[in-house]
Amino acid sequence: MSEIPDLGPVPQRVTVDAEQARRLVSSQFPKLADFVVEPVANGGWDNWTFHLGPDRLVRLPSAAEYALAVDKEHQWLPALAGQLPLPIPAPLAKGKPGAGYPYPWSIYRWLDGEPASADRIADSVRFALDLAEFLAALQSIDTAGGPQPGIHNWFRGGTLRTYDKKVHDALTELGGHVDADLVREIWARALDARWDGVDRWFHGDIAQGNLLLADGQLAAVIDFGTCGIGDPACDLAIAWTLLTSEGRQAFRKRLAVDDATWARGRGWALWKTLATCPDTLEGPEDAMEFANAQRILGEIFSEYTANAVIKSRP
């Protein structure tokens, strides 16, 4: 992409409760009307998510921009599923606006598992390799006709320069709470790292909440709302946000990531982490989230500095 995209205004989210979701289901899918509808704990931001009986879920986009992913998911997830080594969401039905709700929506098969976290992962290197295997399989899928970067996925797969202003705005708000000079250096390296221009499939939001564990091992990957084709470096951010140092090395080696792609992946991790910092800086209730962001920045800084030292050796 030669031009820097415009992210547009902040999405105006609508609120949906379980009763409204129940009315949508019962009016459009009467055979499912008797199933209990209950909110999913930590159901995400882009969508309101509800259990529908024991083995289904209702997924309702929270804003018009997020609703752009509905048709994409129904078209592409069935095609991707058979070519991947782990389960991904299976769309069962597509709903339409109604009951005071303005957007298309979906019913999916429920996938069991608990969200990944460092303390739940049984073997950090095995987890990293399993995730790398999944991403390698995803990147190998034919991209013909696939969704290019756009508002439907906030331009994942496109240039990092889309987020340049957000990075600098975050630095201004954070003042002396981060090493601004080092952030600027890492960010500049990421912006300058060239992509080879070959489209590949990517997930777009490989994050803890979208990686499900069973018995401490990676069991499923969910939430493909930001998926598309383009530069897959956005999927590497997890290397700094969740993986251990040893896991990160194994992850990179399995995916055979070159220096330029790794630098862009580091840039994705950097901006995503910085974006959360200003909102969690002041409030005591956000202290844990801010501490986690600082931990991730520490991972980014130490890994970058170590790489720089290694490359400077004769």
Tell me the layout of helices and strands:
Elements: H1 18-28, E1 37-39, E2 47-52, E3 56-61, H2 64-67, H3 69-81, E4 91-95, E5 105-109, E6 114-115, H4 124-139, H5 164-174, H6 180-192, E7 200-202, E8 211-214, E9 217-221, E10 228-230, H7 238-241, H8 245-255, H9 259-280, H10 287-312
Describe this structure in words.
The longest helix has 26 residues, at 287-312. The two termini are 37 Å apart. The model has no long low-confidence stretch (mean pLDDT 95). β1 and β2 (47-52) form a beta hairpin. With 314 residues, the chain is an alpha+beta fold. α4 runs parallel beside α8 (245-255), α5 (164-174) crosses α9 and α6 crosses α9 (259-280). It has helices at 18-28, 64-67, 69-81, 124-139, 164-174, 180-192, 238-241, 245-255, 259-280, 287-312; strands at 37-39, 47-52, 56-61, 91-95, 105-109, 114-115, 200-202, 211-214, 217-221, 228-230.
List keywords for this structure.
five-stranded antiparallel beta sheet, three-stranded antiparallel beta sheet, 42% helix
Tertiary shape? globular
Number of strands: 10
- Tell me the strand percentage band: 5-15%
Termini separation comes to: 37 Å
Widest sheet, order of strands = 1-2-3-5-4
Number of helices: 10
> Helices and strands, in N-to-C order?
HEEEHHEEEHHHEEEEHHHH
Poorly predicted regions are: none
Summarize the structure.
The protein is an alpha+beta fold. It is built from 10 helices and 10 strands.
